[in-house]
Write a structure and sequence with these properties.
By secondary structure, the protein is mostly beta strands. The protein is built from one helix and nine strands. Strands 4-5-6-9-8-7 form a six-stranded antiparallel β-barrel. It has a two-stranded antiparallel ribbon with strand order 1-2. A hairpin with an 8-residue loop joins strand 8 and strand 9.
């Protein structure tokens, strides 16, 4: 366990399943945490990931948000009656090119242990990455 500046303990794991894996395509909906639309894109966007792990994801989108933008990322986990809502920050973006689709790299903020375990279980059902 590790404590943050507020004294709240969070579990930090460095396990191979925690790394994002290319080819893990998961449907996601993301929205700006501030609730404001921008000229660059819509307030909410439904898309797919190019990779995802418990630490973050690369989300395919023609309308990447600015680096540093706070987002809410919604993932519908099968066999759950509600979607999992994760807070994330945009860490980097890339434009479309002949070898890569446009998108943005997201870093998930501190996950509660229950969410971390739920994601581990869900990702293990996806099988190996392509």
């Amino acid at each position: 366990m590790q404590s943050n500046s507020k004294g709240i303990e969070r579990e930090r794991r460095n396990h191979f399943r925690g790394r994002s894996q290319a080819g893990r395509r998961v449907d996601v909906l993301y929205r700006r945490a501030d609730g404001e639309a921008t000229a660059a894109g819509p307030l909410e966007c439904t898309t797919v990931t190019a990779n995802i792990g418990v630490g973050g994801s690369f989300v395919l989108t023609e309308f990447p948000e600015s680096v540093g933008t706070a987002l809410e990322v919604c993932i519908q986990v099968p066999e759950q009656d509600h979607e999992l809502i994760l807070r994330a920050d945009v860490r980097w973006t890339c434009a479309s090119s002949p070898i890569q689709a446009a998108g943005m790299g997201l870093q998930f903020e501190s996950l509660e242990v229950a969410a971390l375990l739920l994601l581990h279980d869900y990702f293990s059902t996806l099988g190996p990455a392509c």
